[in-house]
Amino acid sequence: MNRRDFFGAGAALGLAGVSALNASSALATQTTEETDKRAEAKLRISCQVGPAPGDSFEKKLENMKKYGCEAVEYGGECVGKGKEYRQKAADAGLEVSAICWGSHSGDLCSEDVSKRQPGIDDLKRALETAGEMGASGVIYVPAFNGQTKLTNPEIRSLLLEFMPDLAKFAHDCNTNIIFEPLCRMEAYFLRQVADGASIARDILRTAGVDSGIGVMGDFYHMDTEETSQMGAFISAGSLLKHVHLAGGVENPRRTFPGENSMTFVDGFRGLKYIGYQRFCSFECGCASDDREEAFKKTIEFLRSQWDEA
Ligand code: MG
Q: Fewer CB atoms inside 10 A, N or C side of the chain?
């Protein structure tokens, strides 16, 4: 059978065959109107401690609240101190969006098997803390460039071995492991949002749970790796658990949104389409000498981009 005959035979199966194929996918039976969740979407802004204006931790949280943030994103310093750090946020009128945990030096995906279990144990501690704080999840990078000698296919297979148990653990903690795709300057494994979503989907299928792992998008990395920011967010859908806000690669590079010419309208259209209600959190520098004024302006800029989207 040549290529033309093959497709001809497919067509001869008729409508019954087509509807049987469609029935295998719940999404395929939904109308465009049903998958369009724009009315539910909200721009909920969060900020890491570093980028916020203020000369102390308390002042930074106070300024986040003052300029319209709803949450703070912590680093690994909060692990094991969930109640204490949840209270610090609550005292400022904020929720906790996520823990930015990183790669644990790539240990979980190291070619050195002895390094993996200590990394897995530490990730569990971070997930327990995220659960205690009511956070969306723990942001996890499998490996930065140079942290593992395993190839991309080997890392993907390895994740499918140890992540299902961790996803179940995260599910029981009422939080998520959140894969962060990075640009090629920082990581060769996991660079696109859709790739992270696909790995998370496979892990959920193996784990037999409907949450506990997902993906995020960072506008800075997406500026290099994605052909469509809107398409990237739509392909993640309900697996999208977090977003990082930063300007793209053009100078001034990776600073507050609005400080370079990158637009957020296309990406925000994607977030609106999937009815995104989780947090978008600043992870970026500041090009201006007046950080407080720049913070106020970037939030105004993002709200106008959201309205335009
Ligand atoms: Mg990031």
A: N
Domains in the chain and their CATH numbers? 44-308 (3.20.20.150)
Assigned token pair, 103: 């790669």
| Whether residue 160 has pLDDT greater than 50 | yes
Q: How far is it, in rounded angstroms, from Cα 246 to Cα 263? A: 11
CA of 184 to the centre of ligand 1 (A): 13
Asked whether the whole model's pTM tops 0.85, one would answer: yes
**Which residues sit with Cβ closer than 5 angstroms to ligand 1, an ion?**
218, 244, 283
pLDDT score of 199 more than 60: yes
